[in-house]
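User: Fold this; tokens only.

Assistant: Input:
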Amino acid sequence: MAGVGFELKKLFTARTAAGHIRAYSYSAMITAGPFALLTLMILGVQLLYHICGTPDAVTGVFVASVVYSFIFSQVISGGFTMVLTRYVADCLSVAHWQDVTSSLFGIGAILEVICGISGAIFLWGSPLPLLTKWLAYLFFAMLTFVWAEGVYLSAIKNYKRLLLGYFLGVLISFGVAYLMLFHGASLMGADQAGLLAVDMGMAFIMLFFLLCITAHFGLPSEGMSFAFLPYYERHWRLFFISFFYMLGLFLPNIIIWQGPLGVSVADTFRYAPIYDVLTFYAFLSILPLMMMFVVSVETNFYDRYASYFIAVTRKGNFRSINDARKNLLYTLWFEMRHIVEFQLVFTLVWLALGSYLLSFAGITYGQINMFNVLLFGAFFTGLLQLVYILFIYFDYQQDVLYISAFFAVSNIVLGIIGLLFFGEPSYGFTFFVASATSCLLGFWRLSHFAKRINYFVFCSQPVFYMPPHGILTKIAEKLYGARYVNLELLGVEQEEAEQEKMREQKIQQAMNQKAPEDMDEIRDSINEIESGDTIKKIENDNKK
């Protein structure tokens, strides 16, 4: 989402109330727009079901298929897309364009094979009609591929086109659902009509995004579709960080499906409609948190972050590095405090409105209390996600892996204990305890890192680069031979070449200001030149 922040920063330069309102509105549309439009697609089809008087048993098949697709598509794709983001970023940083689009087809092939195997295992013994199975599977597979496309769309930064694609997909779903339910009822069942509608909308979104990506990066004519595989060896922690986080998010729902709130649908699906709906509305409350993070934290924090590492990598002196460190940490904690305060106020407002509005929807008093607890669970989960992102900025993956594993395991353990021993009163509370504990752990580790940031940046990194040499690297080398390029090594070579160029420029600058008889005098003092001391000395001599 950093690209979103950079684009929004341009809007904030207006320094006017209208400019700020425009920037925040644009941020809200970018961060929450795709999620809101996909939700609108599902709710629109359900509204048409209600108008048609469709039985709850038929509607249940549609809702359960969509819920399962949303949950398990994110669980499956989360780890893959996290590592893929690193690969695409490296491709762009070293201008290795030819493999960008190719990697989309490669990761798409891997994800679709996984979706096919898991879908076949899950639906094999289901009594659902074959057409219903295929329509449910297609939505699951296409949604998984769309999550992978999101990695490339963030690099394109054409967010208006992104929202346009989702919006047109929603309109197509509405149109197909209306035609099938009101004018084509004899062609297929109502559940199949709804699934066909969302499939058509999702197919349009997927193809529209694919055209945007290929138009920007080009077609994969000679690219290497699986050159990203070695990244899953070197950055395996990123894979499990995202995987554990997704498990921690959705495992509480899956555990509660097995309890008294869970209902069975067509002897295939099992879910808890009340708990799932309350969880959905609770997580809607943290959308402002993500909006504020994009606007405030990434735009202001990244400038200090870049200044600090430029001072480190460009061989700045101790004073410049220390000043950059202080500015970085001050901005980090200031922005985090600001975003926590803002989201806490919004959560309290959502708490008051939700408790009032849900009472008109037939929700019981106990279920409203469950919603209130889920609100604060979502609050701490959102903050935990920010801690993840900040740690990954510094490439400090070890602590994030421990925290995400703790988040997943605590949700499993507490969820099972609550289900077996405490029943419905514990629903939502176990998730709140797990998320709050994980968030506190995350902030403690972030504070520990911040106090020792110079050590972690200078001393904890490996002295020598060790390229991956496992089975995935061997597969990539076997597939592409001499064509295979290690992007990380290429980036190091480009960085060294750039530093050498800057070094020669400084030498030439010193020679232009003062031409000594002995050329070695300047070259021997290159370290002082790079810190700026010799250049200042020459300038002072010239002034004298």
